[in-house]
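U., I forgot to send this yesterday:
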Amino acid sequence: MNAVTSGTCPACGATLALRHEGALDAWTCAQGHGLAFTLTEAYARLPDDEIHTMWALARTAKPGSRPCPMCANPMVTVSVPGLDGARPVDVDVCVDDELLWLDAGALDRLPPHQADVPPSADEQREIDQITRQFGEGLQRDWAAEDDVGFVNRVASRVGHHPVLGRVFGIGARPTT
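Result:
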């Protein structure tokens, strides 16, 4: 897959320019019609729940009339709640390219990504305990798997031995 460095604005057809704004890399229209960014980039700017809602709606929506800035296939339009319950914001989504297009000003009407709150001391103790228990369980399972693997390897070798296979009743038996 080749890296895409530019696309075209779905509103006017102008070449988009890649811009770096804080944690967000987005392609913007020089005429000010809007911007596009990948689904991965969205996690730097939008809340996870918002992205999941957009993506779930986009996967079942019917294609619209706007072309994707990158592949020119029709995008789907989904409406998501605006910031603080404001009117919904329409977001165009190209499911194939995992690309979001927002008209000018629409990004500012969506809630910003919030950094994850670190766990409290009590929560961290619980996480540590679960991690220890999970790790111990994995080590037990791996050890048991190694034992079974060893037994199976020995049985296979014995079963293929012309004399030991008959002695232990393992492997192919001659037909009479």
